[in-house]
Structure formats: structure tokens, C-alpha cells
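Deliverable D4.2, example record:
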Amino acid sequence: MKVLLIEADNDFAAPIAYALNNADMETAVCFTAMEAVGALQLEPPDIILLRSARDYHPIGLLRTLKGIRRVPILILEPWPQNDEEYLRRVVEALDMGADDYIRAPQNMREIEARIKSLVRRTQEYTLLAPMPVRQKPNLRLVPKVTK
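Output generated by the structure prediction step:
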């Protein structure tokens, strides 16, 4: 599984990337929005973990990434000062297209479980999506007449 971690702070990114790599999740770290967009276009990941970028607001970056490719995005939020601010941020991120939202730092086992769950649901949805139906032109259904 390929993970793209977008985090401006290497001190925060390094232990997460290390833990995910040890959990057999190939993890690439991007520190800027430009790096993230390039990585997404070059080699699409199975999931994106977004916390912060040095050159872009996370919500704006979320919208940009969603516009490039359909990849599940898990937002990692630093612990907020109060619950109202946290709730406002969660709602805003989910309304803008985030697939999940979690306070970070958090237990790595929970983050790994959420990653696996999001990727699994995305893959199941893709496999179960209805195939387009080809219709013949001028097709009419005529009831069978019985005598």
C-alpha cells in the first residue's frame, strides 16, 4: 500500500513515516503543496495523510488534491485549544471532501487501522461501481400478447 504524507514539520512526519513503513505501508513524505501535487501526479498513492504544508492552507490543498485525482484523504489535526474549534475544523474538512479526520498525534495503531479501512472501502466501492450499460438505439419493449 502506498501512502503520501503531507506534513510541514519533519519532527512530526519522521516517526509517522517510520511507523507506517514498518507496517508495510510504503510512505512518501512531502513538505510543500508543490511536492504533494507532483507526487500525486507522478505516482498516485492509495491514500493521502494531510496535516500541513509549508506553502498552502490544508483546506485549500485538500480541494486541490481532490481536483487532481480521486484518492482518499485522511486529515491529521493537531490537538486544538477547544472542542468548538475542533468541531468547526472537522465539519469544514469533511464538507470540502476529506474522507476522515483524526486528532494527531494519536496512537499509530488507530491511524494504521483508519488507513486500511479507508483504502478498503475505496477499493470496494470501485469494484462494486455499476458498469455503464450500452443501450441499443430505438429499443422498445413490446408486451407479449397471449391468446
